Amino acid sequence: MSQERTAPGATGAFVEDPEAPEYSAYGGDWSEIADEAARLGQQRIVVNMGPQHPSTHGVLRVMLEIEGETVTETRAGIGYLHTGIEKNMEYRTWTQGVTFCTRMDYVASMSQEAVYCLGIEKLLGITDEVPERANVLRVLMLELTRIGSHLVAIGTGGNEMGATTVMTTAFIGREDTFRVIEMITGLRTNNAYIRPGGVSQDTPEGAVEYIRQMIPKVRQKLDELVDLQLQNPIFKLRLQGVANLDLAGCMALGITGPILRSAGLPYDVRKAEPYCGYETYDFQVPTSTESDAYSRVVLRLEECYESLKIVEQCADRLDQTVGQPVMVADKKIAWPAQLSLGADGQGNSLEHIRHIMGESMESLIHHFKLVTEGFKVPAGQVYQAIEGPKGLLGVHLVSDGGTKPWRAHFRDPGFNNLQALSILTEGGQVADVVVAIATIDMVLGGVDR
Amino acid sequence: MSDSQDLTGTGAAKGGPQMGDRERITLINVREGMFGAKGDTSGYDLLVTPVQMPGASERPYGEWFDGAVNVLEELLGERADAAIEYVVVDRGELTLHIAREHLVEVCEHLRDDQDLRFEMCLGVSGVHYPADAGRELHAVYPMQSITHNRRLRIEVAVDEADPHVPSITSVYPMNNWHERETWDFFGIVFDGHPSLARIEMPDDWVGHPQRKDYPLGGIPVEYKGAEIPSPDNRRQYR
Amino acid sequence: MGIEESAPPFMLGTVEDFVGYMRAGSMWPATFGLACCAIEMMSTGTPRFDIARIGSEVFRGSPRQADMMIVAGRVSNKMAPIVRQVYDQMAEPKWVLSMGVCASSGGMFNNYAIVQGVDHVVPVDIYLPGCPPRPEMLLYALLELQRQVRETPMGRNRRQMAAAAEAAALAATPTSDMKGLLR
Ligand code: SF4
Fold this sequence. Notes:
Chain B is built from four helices and twelve strands; from the N terminus they run ββααββαβββββαβββ. Chain B is of the alpha+beta class. In chain B, the strands form four sheets. In chain B, strands 3, 4, 5, 6, 7 and 8 form a six-stranded mixed beta sheet that branches. A two-stranded antiparallel ribbon of chain B has the order 1-2. Chain C has 183 residues and is α/β, with parallel strands linked by helices.
């Protein structure tokens, strides 16, 4: 684009004073660097943290201006994982888009899939036609990923503060949820399981029993995490009263999710604007008024217990809905083939192949059209929001009446919440920056997309 | 951009797009031919279909929409006509098309009035409609009211040649990064933003990659014995 | 019965074997988690998969203490210089494992933002396909890398091997010239 488009000051220097002495240090002894700074008479020390830093949850870059151990200014630099997913989706069919958006926030893949598919269904006007069993499976998946995501948040948070056991314990619990997810979807993460109109396939045999077996195991790990952390004096000293953000601050910065609830507002999209039948499940939205990092860990753990309750209810409903469809009846939208496991690996089910290759020319044409071209979505735009593990996850979808999105824009809660990093850290200790990052719990894949 | 249609706005560089006697509707795209292929395969070049957004709605809008629009109009007073270009109700969602000069005021009312009370702006999503002459770049703001549990959408359309929209960070500080992102990807300049720097792309990047006229930038993939063009250069069935 | 009971008083071997044997064990990776693959890399480090069994559980934050870089995830244009810098900061000998299709070839993201393969930026020793590769696959790739390292020739052998590899590469048909094989 031409130069004159650039607004004045669009890319200003980080240090406004052009006269400021500047020097860079790569490693070395800190006291030497400090001496050098003292010799230059410069008070301003800017420390760069990341983007390749083990405790920045991925590739976040944080620029800290410090005075001794105190942080006086924090800026977050993002974009190191910008993948162009939104643009890439414009070149793929609506169904293929699921594979892309699932890779945004890769710790909670299912949330993006769900919000995207709900958006498409709203555009198509088939929200009410999604079969019940598909909704139950969606809720099941959403809650399992919520547990997984919170466990990653707690586990890596603990790890970053030096408690590796917290991480290993959390990940064992997460692996248990993964076993269920893998059994049903075939993949551990990045599943592309939730599809416009339903889900890609029904549960395999024995899935419900497997879920029931999983629940106590995960609960046990959660109990262990509670025992390990919540009464631990070091843990409390490290987290209580750190990274405070009160309700006014949350509202000003548009914070949602556990951080908002830790400030006392019980806002949860699952309750406020139920989707996928959440209004029929029995669960609580835990809140707190402490609004510090410690209370957010407590909230995340409590939410995991609530999610397990929902998973239990899902298991019961899966029993009640055995044999019901998991995809809308409309053959113009529903994916024609069923996946199955053959002797030579995974592929389309044999009956379907026999049908389209041997019996019905129309089915073959239909299969071919739907798979290569996709279905058309009437022109218009919608906004759909769900409660992701990290907060309000929204999608803005624009269709031009074609088989591909005209624009798909995701509002990742992490992207928005990360704006609070400055306010959470300024005035605190350098070591608390790590706690603040862990408590925001963003995933850079979602932040940068 | 095709100038063969009569949907041209009168906007260009006259201090923002004016609706004039333009149809109250967004032109998304103009399709040619049958399968989205470049050019018309029939040979007559007559297969030209404009694709449009759902157009302006008439009252009553239904649900709580009338009430909200009434309150907003009342608060805006005589500026209401100029500020609210048109209102669309589609798929159960309310969209207010706002003239950019009045955007900040509208946002203030949306946030502060007790009957509106949209506390949160869920970001801004840029959309590029190259065929919508004079109103190519749209900034779409979803607004969330937690108090009333409602959502509406504000849409501001500007000319590609004059892509200025006032920043609403003074009203909704949470939009800071979202506006930077939209500047980065679409080149919409949010006037009054505290530091409108690129956020996702490297600082020295040229161009705004999510515009429609910016190529996807893929490269052909070589296999042994075949080459697959990148997704934007393949035949498309749109 | 292990070597402890029947160890000969001395053994003969080549320096090559000895050095390879020493190098191959306990390779410490630099944490270079970028995207979804990084989560699987982290899972590999946790009890279910337990990367400690092959001595690579010590993920190092400082590249100077690492032997190996696992590039786990998509490398964006903005990140590429940093990848290179971290690679340059690592002490020799060093190895690069490109984990996942994104790091290996750009994967499904063939677009403006992503470097189409981290081998444009750093030399890669082993490519691990998959999206994301399962932790088991990562373990297998590590074992395979260890085998490679163990068998790395040195000195004259290395020069010979390099010359042979170069000659073979020069004689080979470039992929772009292989036409018409896919029908
Ligand atoms: S290869 Fe797949 S899992 Fe790995 S970073 Fe790329 S998209 Fe994510």
